[in-house]
């Protein structure tokens, strides 16, 4: 047996906080070594934080990372452990996103990322250069390029994030060249349901390439991107370990690398493929001999036996229900996003919410309170200030609901009427129109803007983080007000569809029993900016609206194709009505792009986020002739 203990770490980094990020990694490295870890794996861009975006264009931003990497090597010199950490380097005019191998007080090598994503939320090819097969250069006296590393326990192949997502990635040539343990450093953002995709991908790659894969992922939130952590250890296709998500720390497990080689020898297809690769001129990746750099201590390691002490029977099923998994993941991700933005910006002292008594602001409050329970467990409500700002159209029911949930959560609650100001602003607008009456929609917008203005005044005066509460569905069709409810410092649920908002609230009602949630859900959803407003009556049923948005924004269907899909999805709705809904959605969506491009920074939880910077990059000015059938 050749037993190796692998530690997978997730560090909550802040972009540009090089010293603090390195300090966190050093603390975990010390704990790993104390617990007999042979090789410790840290995430992509550990020192700089991720995503640094155009900050990497600053030479000083890149150069300053190297002293921290040297410090990490120096302070881990006495430890009998190998570490692989993410770092950026500036090399001959290029910026390279690298995995650095560190042991015995030395930086042994740098392996640059080869596959640079430019889809979804990623723009890496804009700033970073690519590593290349066969690359063999030197950076500050350290080998830089396509290398393997031979230690006293086996041969290691470092790689960075996207390299594992390509079937034509470096793993193939590196395992054919003798790599037994592939170490992948990632900063893979949270996306709904994506953890299963990661798990399956890593299992597939480990089986295809007959190797052990140790995958470490970043945790925490920087700007609108949320990283959920969750590392994986897989040996030749068999799941070994998964680390906890949404928390900083590390987890370790033991594998027998002799098993990896034995299974490789038994895999005839892998052997034949390797022979073909060699016959076609495949060039072996060079191996750096590091066997004398560090002497790992593995004598105390024991064979990895199943916790339930059976190699034939399944382990106890600890999986969550689909409902629990979906809801808890969204709530964990969004509360992490709120908390990290609040803490890392270091600009705010309290969280502020305009609590309307409706569904969206209620969910935003519950997410903020979820973070506050972690940050101030002794008194979470002290971190939040809620304001109810009624006008003549506000109902007693929504006020009661808002008061009830604030009381249940222990959140400070103030009632500040906007009715007098509304009357005054309406009169001013009428004067500016030469005595003509303002339109009904203007009357609604005046109320929304007054509330936003007061929230900004409060924020400016007390250092409050003004949380914007609008959802993605209404944002997509412009059912929102520029300068009003579209405004805020951080948009918490701007990428959560309305149907998901309601699903989450049903879940939270079941799991918490809060009376305030029940009271909010008892009333039809509506903004209360006019008499008896109901959102679905003014727009369309929310399930149909969300289906239209998905089919248009994600599947990229034409209106005719959307109608065809909706007819199959909602057979109980007359086709003529569905056709009207589709026409209305497309018209409102196209007309509302100018609105949502002005919205605040939003938290990302999916591939269909409504964000021009990181998701749907659509022109504001565009025609619709292309949608018409010929």
From TrEMBL:
InterPro entries: C-N_Hydrolase, C-N_Hydrolase_sf, Gln-dep_NAD_synthase, NAD/GMP_synthase, NAD_synthase, Rossmann-like_a/b/a_fold. The keyword ATP-binding applies. Residues 4-257 form the CN hydrolase domain. Pathway: Cofactor biosynthesis; NAD(+) biosynthesis; NAD(+) from deamido-NAD(+) (L-Gln route): step 1/1. ATP binds at residues 354-361, 469. SUPFAM superfamilies: Adenine nucleotide alpha hydrolases-like, Carbon-nitrogen hydrolase. Gene3D superfamilies: Carbon-nitrogen hydrolase, HUPs. One of its GO terms (cellular component) is cytoplasm. Belongs to the NAD synthetase family. Catalyzes the ATP-dependent amidation of deamido-NAD to form NAD. Uses L-glutamine as a nitrogen source. NCBIfam families: nadE. This is Glutamine-dependent NAD(+) synthetase.
């Amino acid at each position: 047996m050749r037993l190796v203990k692998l530690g997978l770490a997730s560090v909550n980094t802040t972009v540009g906080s090089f010293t603090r990020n390195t300090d966190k990694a050093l603390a975990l490295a010390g704990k790993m070594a104390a617990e007999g870890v042979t090789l410790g794996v840290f995430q992509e861009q550990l020192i700089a934080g991720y995503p640094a975006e155009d900050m990497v264009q600053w030479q000083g931003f890149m150069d300053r990372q190297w002293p921290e990497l040297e410090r990490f090597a120096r302070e881990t010199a006495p430890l009998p452990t190998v570490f692989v950490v993410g770092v950026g380097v500036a090399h001959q005019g290029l910026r390279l996103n690298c995995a650095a191998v560190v042991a015995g007080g030395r930086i042994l090598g740098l392996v640059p990322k080869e596959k640079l994503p430019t889809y979804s939320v990623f723009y890496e090819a804009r700033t970073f250069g690519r590593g290349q097969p066969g690359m063999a250069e030197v950076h500050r006296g350290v080998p830089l390029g396509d290398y393997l590393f031979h230690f006293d326990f086996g041969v290691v192949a470092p790689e960075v994030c996207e390299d594992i997502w390509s079937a034509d990635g470096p793993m193939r040539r590196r395992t054919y060249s003798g790599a037994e343990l592939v170490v992948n450093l990632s900063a893979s953002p949270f996306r709904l349901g994506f953890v299963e995709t990661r798990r399956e991908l890593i299992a597939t790659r480990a089986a295809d390439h007959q190797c052990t894969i140790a995958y470490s992922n970043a945790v925490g939130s920087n700007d609108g991107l949320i990283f959920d952590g969750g590392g994986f250890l897989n040996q030749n296709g068999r799941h070994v370990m998964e680390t906890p998500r949404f928390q900083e720390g590390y987890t370790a497990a033991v594998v027998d690398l002799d098993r990896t080689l034995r299974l490789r020898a038994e895999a005839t297809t892998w052997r034949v493929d390797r022979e073909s690769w060699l016959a076609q001129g495949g060039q072996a990746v060079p191996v750096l001999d590091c066997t004398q750099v560090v002497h790992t201590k593995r004598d105390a390691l024991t064979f990895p036996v199943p916790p339930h002490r059976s190699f034939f029977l399944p382990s106890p099923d600890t999986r969550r229900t689909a409902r629990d998994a979906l809801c808890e993941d969204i709530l964990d991700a969004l509360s992490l996003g709120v908390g990290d933005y609040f803490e890392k910006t270091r600009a705010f002292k309290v969280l502020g919410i305009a609590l309307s008594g409706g569904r969206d602001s209620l969910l935003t409050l519950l997410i903020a309170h979820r973070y506050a329970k972690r940050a101030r467990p002794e008194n979470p409500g002290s971190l939040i200030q809620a304001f109810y700002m009624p006008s003549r159209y506000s109902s007693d029911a929504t006020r009661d609901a808002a008061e009830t949930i604030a009381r249940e959560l222990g959140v400070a609650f103030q009632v500040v009427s906007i009715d007098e100001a509304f009357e005054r602003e309406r009169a001013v607008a009428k004067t500016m129109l030469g005595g003509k009456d303002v339109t009904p929609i203007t009357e609604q917008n005046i109320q929304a803007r007054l509330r936003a203005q007061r929230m900004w005044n409060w924020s400016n005066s007390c250092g409050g983080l003004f949380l914007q509460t609008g959802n993605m569905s209404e944002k997509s069709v412009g059912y929102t007000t520029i300068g009003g409810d579209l405004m805020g410092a951080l948009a918490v649920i701007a990428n959560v569809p309305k149907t998901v908002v309601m699903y989450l609230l049903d879940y939270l009602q079941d799991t918490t029993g809060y009376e305030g949630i029940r009271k909010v859900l008892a009333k039809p959803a509506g903004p209360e900016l006019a008499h008896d407003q109901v959102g679905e009556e003014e727009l369309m049923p929310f399930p149909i609206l969300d289906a239209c948005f998905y089919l248009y924004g994600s599947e990229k269907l034409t209106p005719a194709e959307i109608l065809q899909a909706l007819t199959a999805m909602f057979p109980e709705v007359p086709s003529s009505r569905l056709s009207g809904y589709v026409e209305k959605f497309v018209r409102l969506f196209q007309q509302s792009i100018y609105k949502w491009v002005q919205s605040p920074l939003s938290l990302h939880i999916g591939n269909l986020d409504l964000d021009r910077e990181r998701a749907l990059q659509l022109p504001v000015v565009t025609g619709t002739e292309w949608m018409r059938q010929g």
